């Protein structure tokens, strides 16, 4: 997230070499600097948004032709922050473990976390500007949005990825066990990060879109209470839709998973 301006550009305007220089800097200033495989980590720009990709993957679009036309129109305006991902050029024998399906799951998780972190940063810049204090309703909505994103990021990293990783790392001794444990780690992580149900994916993206609309229109809408009320209505409604979907999934699967996630995200 070092270069906000580059991430705001449309896909065709992105200077990939510039983003790659930031990736190289990030790697060399982290613990990865001593990793023998650090040079195999590359940047990639996808031509499809994460939500459109997951919609096709999960087969949730009923009208394929209409959906395709809509996606083409949206993807022409795809921003770098929505297209950016990492790729790992795994060579044999690592390619046995890091196969196409595995790398696809890592990519999906990374793109969701990057989206949330990017939007959180934009909203935090609104908070730092202090202009929101001129309108109490802005303050309330901004706080709600930041709370949702921070809760999700904490939950995804501290309560899903980290414990799942430790569980995976502690449960293999042979290559077969490693493959099974790795697959289970990724399946559990994508599910717990709300990336395996098509309707939840769309609900979540709707919330992110509203947050982006708020952040990008912050200055010009500051004195327009009606527009703020409209955004708050949209945001509250999207959260409610997400909660209702989680309740349906919890009832049908008889698992507490989605109920617990809703509680941690403070959905009401």
UniProtKB/TrEMBL annotation:
GO terms for molecular function: gamma-tubulin binding; microtubule minus-end binding. Residues 10-266 form the Gamma tubulin complex component C-terminal domain. It is found in: Cytoplasm, Cytoskeleton, Microtubule organizing center. Keywords: Cytoplasm, Cytoskeleton, Microtubule. GO terms for cellular component: gamma-tubulin complex; microtubule; spindle pole. PANTHER family: GAMMA TUBULIN COMPLEX PROTEIN, GAMMA-TUBULIN COMPLEX COMPONENT 2. This is Gamma-tubulin complex component. It comes from Romanomermis culicivorax (Nematode worm).
């Amino acid at each position: 997230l070092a270069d906000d301006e580059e991430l705001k550009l449309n896909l065709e305007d992105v200077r990939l070499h510039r983003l790659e220089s930031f990736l190289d800097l990030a790697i060399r200033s982290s613990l990865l600097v001593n990793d023998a495989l650090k040079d195999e980590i590359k940047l990639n720009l996808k031509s499809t948004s994460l939500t459109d990709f997951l919609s096709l993957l999960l087969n949730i679009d009923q009208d394929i032709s209409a959906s395709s036309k809509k996606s083409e129109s949206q993807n022409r305006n795809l921003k770098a922050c929505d297209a950016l991902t990492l790729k790992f050029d795994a060579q044999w024998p690592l390619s046995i473990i890091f196969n196409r399906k595995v790398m696809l799951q890592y990519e999906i998780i990374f793109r969701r976390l990057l989206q949330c972190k990017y939007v959180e940063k934009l909203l935090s810049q609104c908070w730092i500007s202090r202009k929101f204090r001129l309108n109490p309703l802005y303050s309330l909505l901004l706080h709600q949005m930041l709370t949702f994103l921070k809760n999700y990021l904490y939950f995804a990293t501290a309560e899903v990825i980290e414990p799942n990783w430790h569980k995976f790392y502690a449960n293999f001794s042979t290559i077969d066990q490693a493959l099974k444990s790795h697959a289970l780690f990724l399946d559990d992580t994508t599910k717990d990060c709300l990336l395996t149900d098509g309707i939840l994916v769309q609900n979540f993206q709707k919330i992110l879109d509203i947050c982006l609309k708020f952040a990008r229109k912050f200055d010009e809408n500051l004195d327009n209470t009606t527009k703020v009320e409209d955004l708050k209505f949209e945001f509250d409604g999207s959260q409610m839709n997400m909660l209702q979907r989680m309740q349906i999934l919890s009832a049908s699967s008889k698992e507490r998973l989605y109920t617990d996630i809703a509680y941690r995200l403070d959905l009401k």
